[in-house]
Design a protein that fits this description.
The chain is α+β, with helices and mostly antiparallel strands. The protein has two domains: 201 residues, Bira Bifunctional Protein, Domain 2 (BirA Bifunctional Protein, domain 2, 2-Layer Sandwich), CATH 3.30.930; 53 residues, Roll (SH3 type barrels), CATH 2.30.30. Helix content is 19%, strand content 31%. The chain contains four helices and 13 strands. The strands form two sheets. It has an eight-stranded mixed β-sheet, sandwiched between helices. Helix 2 runs antiparallel to helix 3.
Length: 260
């Protein structure tokens, strides 16, 4: 375990050559410190994403999880997930000339292909404290063609290795979130102002007024006109068949896809 100087909030770091899941590891150690804790691995064999979906990664791709201490009454709402994705996207944009985009709810696309995703989990610890665990995986090499993917795959081309990228992303996330968590301790949630709508629109995978598909968990599909996000991180889509009906999507169980 190392203490890395992610100023002004030093961070403990665990690094493994192989692990089941970086998020799972941080769940096990949650509560031993109120400092931020970063866990990285060269390979994880049981990584998972939203709704428990398997996250496929190759040796030396970026696999990291960051744990931040939060009040027990903390509720992860109001654009937190989108703000985290934006922070990561902006960090990556400083180390590559590739096209970096964000796709609702919190995916990272590079040159039109899905390259990374964010998983946020909250665990209860002790002494009226909880911890928010931010898991992030990023392709640094192109996935095998044999892997079944919902989107074309993207990967980051950078002079930084996975350890350096993890430090960069962790430092920027800590600096962006720690102050907001402290300010929100009496409100039980992150302030609405944390999500920068203009910043999201600048990097959005979808274009405003683009026709997209809204895919519900039961398989129903609705065509709609994409109108961006509101301040709480909800995706706004006008139903193409019922133009006066505004669909507000707030759960990743509902998928947004381009209209082919």
């Amino acid at each position: 375990m190392l203490l890395i100087p992610t100023s002004p909030h030093p961070c403990y770091r665990f690094n493994f050559s192989e692990i089941d899941s970086t998020n799972n590891f941080l769940k096990k150690v949650a509560g031993f410190t109120t400092r931020p804790v970063l866990c990285t691995a060269a390979y994880q064999h049981s990584g998972y994403g939203q709704q428990g979906r398997a996250w496929c990664s190759k040796q030396n791709d970026l696999m990291m999880s960051l744990m931040l201490s939060v009040p027990n009454r903390f509720i992860a709402t109001n654009g937190l997930s989108q703000s985290i994705a934006l922070c990561i996207a902006n960090s990556l944009g400083t180390v590559t000339d590739q096209l970096i985009q964000v796709k609702w709810p919190n995916d990272i696309f590079i040159d039109g292909g899905k390259a990374g995703g964010v998983l946020i989990e909250i665990v209860r610890t002790v002494h009226d404290q909880s911890a928010i665990i931010i898991g992030f995986g990023l392709n640094l090499t192109k996935p095998d063609d044999s892997v079944s993917l919902d989107y074309p795959a993207g990967s980051l081309l950078s002079c930084l290795d996975s350890m350096e990228l993890a430090n960069l992303c962790a430092t920027n996330l800590i600096n962006a979130l720690v102050g907001s968590i402290k300010k929100s301790s009496d409100q039980s949630h992150i302030n609405d102002s944390l999500l920068n709508i203009n910043d999201w629109q600048r990097l959005d995978y979808f274009k405003l007024n683009e026709t997209i598909r809204v895919i519900y968990p039961n398989g129903d599909v609705v065509a709609g006109v994409y109108c961006g996000l509101d301040q709480t991180g909800q995706a706004l889509i006008y139903n193409a068949s019922l133009p006066d009906e505004l669909i507000k999507v707030s759960t990743g169980l509902v998928q947004l896809r381009r209209h082919d």
